[in-house]
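Chapter summary example.
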Amino acid sequence: MISSTQARSLGWMAVLAICFALVVILSFKVHAVKSEALLAERQVIALERETLLLETEFQTRASQRQLATWNTVEFGYEAPGARQFLDGERQLASLGQLPAPGAPSPIRLARADAAATLASADAPMRSPLTGAKLTLASAASEKDAGEVFTEAFGDFLIEASPIRAAQAQTISAKGSGE
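The structure predicted for these 178 residues follows.
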């Protein structure tokens, strides 16, 4: 059958298996308690935030009460009533009547007439200081300005280039001679 050494080693294996099972069960319980503690901590934080919010709201409402007390008792402020603006329906109806013969004209928004803008578009523009006619840039003059800029920029590059300055001037001299 089984010798005593084998029985002893089987006994130790059984004890080790039971200990291992107890450690696993204990670790599960520890993790469960730890997660409950974290959940409780989160709830405490949420309740603290809610308490802070409620305290802020309470203080705000208390200050509103204080402001209302100051307005009525110390300053005498009241909400405006309809009687402060109009005496009655007749005054409201009088607002819609035509102006009296000596009354100033009502304020109107400025706007340009289409015929006036077309007529002024054909007239030459004049300088507000001298009164001389102004000429506006046209497409042809923009092309000329572009050519002038290109030539000036090319001359600038020729002068600024430290390399092959003599060759660039020779090429530009040949180009301008043609």
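To summarize the output: The first strand starts at residue 125 and ends at 126.
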